[in-house]
Amino acid sequence: MERVAIVGASMTRFGQRDAWVRELLAEAGEAALSDAGIAGDDLDHLYVSNMASGEFEGQTGVPNALAHDLAATPAYTARIDQTSSSGGAGVYAAWQSVASGASDLTMLVGGEKMTHRSTAEATDVIASLTHPVEYKHGVTLPSFAGLTARLYLDEYDAPRESLGKVAVKNHANGVDNPHAQFRKEVDLETVLESPVVADPLRLYDFCPITDGSAALVLCPESVAEEYVDGDDYAVITGIGGATDTHVVHERADPTTMGGVVDSSEIAYDMAGIGPDDVDVAELHDMFTILEFLQSEDLGFFEKGEGWKAVEEGVTDRDGELPINTSGGLKSKGHPLGASGVAQVYEIYKQVTEDAGPRQVEADTGLACNVGGFGNCVTTAILEGSQ
Amino acid sequence: MSDTNADVEPTDESTQEATGERTFEAAEYADGSVSYPPHPVGPGGAERVGTVDLREREARVVTWTTSTATPPGVRAPNTLAIVEFEMGPEYDGPPVRALGGIAADPADPDGEAFDVVIGDRVEPVYVDELREPGAGIREPESQAWDGFRFRPVE
Question: What is the pTM of this model?
């Protein structure tokens, strides 16, 4: 199996954008091609991570449109939909295409256009992933977060403030990310007094609705230096994907995300490392509670102790294990299909020492992308080439 | 029916028709486990062998939330709970839980839901339309819109 390198990456500004999904994908795609010093017709495979362009915009067939727009025909194209983890699933597909030998040069572009819809409509598009017996009760992903947060706080005797500190930390990180939707610090009082969305969680416990796109270029490590200097690429040393039931109440322990546990075990095994070897991580903080659950289920902290790490500053940018140096979904924004790609973009920048003011000391980084409320998960581990 | 589930009664469809009442249908599998919602195959791959009506069972609130940002066609605020059913001493399968709304309190002047906390005992109460069909994205004919909310046991 080929070792797979990332030799180019880009992301658009995340936020409320005038551009539609085709334009967003083309913007990130063109920038990633340029970053890798290649042209569209160099590509063997072109993948698009996108959850719901048909539902949001009435636009389907986006990979075909993108291939034409980037002059990438006749590259093989496919759309990867794995709800909120479409980006991570796209990374998996792109990695597979190169690792298997099917493609010598693959580009993955993730993107979503959402902000033209009302919050209620966008929430409903996302909630359509729920089981009919849940959907009819009006359950939303934010309400799953409220249900789980209450259970977590009760079971592990965690203070409500600890969730707020995730938002404070990730907003502080986002200030230094030029692509982030929010580049503004918030204080704990603002978080704790913001309007209730799904009790006990409030507005600042949730990521925003976002437009944006991100892209990666992948090739065999054996030819990476044909595209970039030897210390400018990263290697995907481990990757895993797993599925848990989408019916959250059927999970043995609703505060454990089985897909995170299972996908990370596969990724750690492939990379030959354990959680203690990870220097920096991007986690899927669509809701503040998810950062606790993932940081525990990835093995960084004991079950029920993730909140203490945030309280103690362990996950701050200058802490022992920085989490969400990009600002996370919380401040960077969450354009569904783009998010998992943008997580890997940040880790790529970190392990190639190109993260600017966000740079931390990191040889090994991990990105965990979660679909639904832990329904489908990918974990990717990147190491710098030097 | 498995003999390890003497406490679990099968649905009597003739009774259901006679009373016009709807069942709270869960599935029973060959290994004795029960799940809500029903799946074609049980948790360990066991074959489905029957149906269990959860309607007359009490449950306890595992957790709850009140959602204020609700999608089209959904009441606001919307108090939701995950509840765990009391399946009796003979049942030794995985917990049988459901997610559902908390019923409106008839004594509340604004028609808001009963207050509940973790551990409260609740019982199912039938509602013929939980959410306005067709207001949201899902095709109205693709699923049922009636079902059960939960109210505190007196």
Answer: 0.95
Q: Are residues B46 and B30 in the same domain?
A: yes
With tokens 């913007």, the residue in question is A27
Residue A228 φ/ψ region, left for φ over 0, alpha for ψ in the -120 to 50 degree band, beta for the rest: beta
Q: What is the mean pLDDT of residues A195-218?
A: 98
Yes or no, beta carbons of B37 and A131 under 8 Å apart: yes
User: What is the tens place of the pLDDT at every residue in A295-327?
Assistant: 999 999 999 999 999 999 999 999 999 999 999
- Tell me what percent of chain B is helix, strand and coil, each rounded to the nearest 5: 10, 35, 55
CA-to-CA distance for A142 and A145, rounded, in angstroms?
Answer: 5
With residue A260 as reference, give the H or E element that holds it. Answer: helix A258-271
Position B5 pLDDT exceeds 90: no
Give me the amino acid identity at A254.
Answer: P
Are B68 and B42 part of one and the same domain?
no
Does B58 score more than 70 pLDDT? yes
Same domain, B39 and B72: no
Note if the bond before B37 is cis, omega within 30 degrees: yes
- DSSP lists the bridge partners of residue B97 as B84
Q: Are residues B103 and B144 in the same domain?
A: yes
Asked whether residue B133 falls in the same domain as residue B154, the answer is yes
Asked if A300 contacts A293 with a C-beta cutoff of 8 angstroms, the reply is no
- Give all strands of the β-sheet with B25-29 in edge-to-edge order: B34-35, B25-29, B48-53
Query: How many C-beta atoms lie closer than 10 Å to residue A159's C-beta?
Result: 11
- Environment class of A33 (CB within 10 Å of its CB; exposed 0-12, middle 13-18, buried 19+): buried
| pLDDT for res B20 | 54
- Whether residue A119 and residue B69 make contact (CB cut-off 8 A), yes or no, is yes
Q: Which residues between 38 and 67 in chain A have a beta carbon less than 8 angstroms from any beta carbon of chain B?
A: 55
Q: Rounded to an integer, what distance in angstroms lies between the CA atom of residue A233 and that of residue A216?
A: 11
Q: Are residues B92 and B78 in the same domain?
A: yes
Query: Which pLDDT value is given to residue B21?
Result: 66
Instruction: Determine contact: A175 vs chain B, CB below 8 A.
Output: no
Q: B99, B129, B130, B143: best mutation site toward chain A, by most A Cβ within 10 Å?
A: B99
Provide CB contacts within 8 A for A47, sequence distance 6+. Answer: A63, A77, A78, A79, A80, A90, A93, A94, A97, A106, A107, A108, A109
